[in-house]
Amino acid sequence: MFCGVNDIYCVFTGSLRNLPTLIKQYGLSKGVNEAMFIVEAYRTLRDRSPYPAHQVLKDLDGSFGFVIYDDKARTAFAALGADEVVKLYWGIAANGSLMISDDVNLVKASCAKSFAPFPTGCMFHSERGLMSFEHPMHKMKAMPRVDSEGVMCGSNFKVDALSKINSIPRVGSEANWATWGQQA
């Protein structure tokens, strides 16, 4: 499915089992399809949401993959469901641009050996990078991808269960939060 609203463009593949519930939750009309919903959820997140993107994506129940391009902000946002039914592939094209598609042959032809499967349960934002929406407190780890000839051809990304992303410390109010996030 394809949808474009106010310079935000979305390509959606798959389906959301809880779309009627999400439509009610966001106050949208009944005729909204998955691509339209994703654009509205993205606009809500971008413009006024107090919730992080990973929290919204965790609420999506189904097999899905999507790519959003926000022409005003000149950013791309993509996500792939965790159930491994829908497949997306990504890579760097010859001109240096990012390419994301569900057609592996198209990505392979455009990106030569610098392509890989898009990691399941993850989201990518062109300004913030790749993160897992299933495990948002863990960093992503690049695992070299080697072809049948033994040549490195990109990376597969996995959640690094041993690493944590810094968050607000869970201590009493006497702690000095002014130093949180600073490197010692």
Write up this protein.
There is one protein chain. The chain has 4 helices and 11 strands, in the order E-E-H-H-H-E-E-E-E-H-E-E-E-E-E. The protein has helices at 19-26, 34-47, 53-58, 104-111; strands spanning 2-5, 8-16, 62-70, 75-80, 89-92, 98-101, 115-117, 122-125, 129-132, 140-146, 152-159. Mean pLDDT is 79; it is low at 168-184. InterPro entries: DUF3700, Ntn_hydrolases_N, TSJT1-like. This is Asparagine synthetase [glutamine-hydrolyzing] 1-like. It comes from Coffea arabica (Arabian coffee). Residues 1-159 form the DUF3700 domain.
Any chance you could write out the topology, listing elements then pairs?
Layout lengths: L1 E4 L2 E9 L2 H8 L7 H14 L5 H6 L3 E9 L4 E6 L8 E4 L5 E4 L2 H8 L3 E3 L4 E4 L3 E4 L7 E7 L5 E8 L25
Antiparallel strand pairs: 1-2, 2-3, 3-4, 4-8, 5-6, 5-7, 8-9, 10-11
Protein name: Asparagine synthetase [glutamine-hydrolyzing] 1-like
InterPro entries: DUF3700, Ntn_hydrolases_N, TSJT1-like
Organism: Coffea arabica (Arabian coffee)
